[in-house]
Design brief:
This protein is an alpha/beta fold and 301 residues long. It has nine helices and ten strands.
Length: 301
C-alpha cells in the first residue's frame, strides 16, 4: 500500500510558496527578491533558503529605501543579508530626487509614491525580469486582485482587468522585451499564518514588532511615532506609550498600536482577538480608498 501524506495548513502554504519560488528560478533569467526586513519578506527569505539551499540564492535582494525607514528595520535588513551571504541592492529615493529620477510634488511629505520610479529604474538598471514580493491578498483589496504571477508591461504598469489565468496552478511567465513580472508566493497567507510560520521556524524579526516604549502623537485617529521628519502641530500633545507595529511602512505613516505583546505567542494571541486589519494602521492607505490600487497600476510593489 502506498504511504499517504497529509500536509497541515502551514505545510501546504510553505510547499506552495517554495514551488512558486522554484518556478521563478526556472522561468526567469534575472529575478530579484524584494527584502525590506519586514515580517513578510522575512518569511520569503526563509522560503528561499528552503527552496535553494545548500546552493547560493539564485537572486539578489532588492530594497527601495525612502529615507524615512525606521532605523531598526534597516539595521535588521543589512544584518540579515550579511548573515546569509546574499547580495543586497539598496536604491534610495533621496538619490533619485537628487538626480531627477523622482520628483516630489509641492508639499508632498510621504515618499510612498516616489518609490515607483526608483523601483522601475532599478529593474531597468539590472534588467530584472521578475521581482518576488511579500504582498498577501488579505492585506488590502487591491492586493486581493493580484495573481501569483502578476504581469507588468514595459512601462511597469499593472492592469487588474487583464491578468493571465492560473488554471491548475500553471503559471505563464512569458515576457516580451521590457516587460516584467511581479511574483507573490505569499498570496494565500494571512497575517496569522505569517506569525505562526515565524514561530514555527523560530525566525528573528525587528524589535519594533514587539512592545516597546516610544513617544507618540495622536493624528488621523491613530498613534504615530514622533520623528523629526514630520513636525508636531502646536495643538498636539506627545505621549510616552508602550506600543508596537503590526505592519511597517515609512516612519511618518506607520500607525502604532498600544500593546503589551513581548513575544511571538503574545502577538498571535493579540491578532486572534483583533477587530482592525493590520493595514488599518497605515496612514498612507487611509489617504484614499483607491490609493493602493492607483500606486500599483503605476508600478508600485
Amino acid at each position: 500500500m502506498p504511504t499517504s501524506y497529509h500536509l497541515d495548513h502551514l505545510q501546504h502554504l510553505e510547499t506552495e510558496a517554495i514551488h512558486i519560488m522554484r518556478e521563478v528560478a526556472g522561468e526567469f533569467e534575472r529575478p530579484a527578491l524584494l527584502f525590506s526586513g519586514g515580517k513578510d519578506s522575512i518569511c520569503l527569505l526563509r522560503l528561499a533558503e528552503k527552496a535553494f539551499r545548500p546552493s547560493e540564492l539564485p537572486m539578489p535582494l532588492l530594497n527601495i529605501d525612502t529615507g524615512h525607514h525606521f532605523p531598526e528595520l534597516n539595521e535588521f535588513r543589512d544584518r540579515r543579508a550579511k548573515h546569509l551571504g546574499a547580495k543586497l541592492i539598496v536604491r534610495k529615493v533621496e538619490d533619485a530626487i537628487a538626480n531627477g529620477t523622482a520628483t516630489p510634488a509641492p508639499g508632498e511629505v510621504s515618499r510612498n509614491r516616489l518609490q515607483i520610479p526608483v523601483l522601475l529604474a532599478a529593474i531597468e538598471e539590472y534588467r530584472f525580469d521578475a521581482c518576488i514580493g511579500g504582498a498577501r491578498r488579505d492585506e488590502e483589496k487591491a492586493r486581493a486582485k493580484e495573481r501569483f504571477f502578476s504581469f507588468r508591461d514595459s512601462f511597469g504598469q499593472w492592469d487588474p482587468k487583464n491578468q493571465r489565468p492560473e488554471v491548475w496552478n500553471l503559471y505563464n511567465g512569458r515576457l516580451n522585451p521590457g516587460d516584467n513580472m511581479r511574483v507573490f508566493p505569499l498570496s494565500n497567507w494571512t497575517e496569522m499564518d505569517v506569525w505562526e510560520y515565524i514561530r514555527q521556524e523560530e525566525l528573528e524579526v525587528p524589535s519594533i514588532y514587539f512592545s516597546h516604549r516610544r513617544p507618540c502623537v495622536r493624528r488621523g485617529g491613530q498613534w504615530l511615532p514622533v520623528n523629526p521628519i514630520l513636525p508636531l502641530k502646536p495643538t498636539e500633545t506627545v505621549r510616552d506609550l508602550v506600543v508596537r507595529v503590526r505592519t511597517i511602512g515609512d516612519i511618518i505613516s506607520t500607525g502604532l498600536v498600544e500593546s503589551p505583546a513581548a513575544t511571538v505567542d503574545d502577538i498571535i494571541t493579540e491578532i486572534a482577538a483583533a477587530h482592525v486589519t493590520e493595514r488599518g494602521s497605515r496612514a498612507d492607505d487611509k489617504a484614499s480608498e483607491a490609493a493602493m490600487e492607483d500606486r500599483k497600476k503605476a508600478g508600485y510593489f
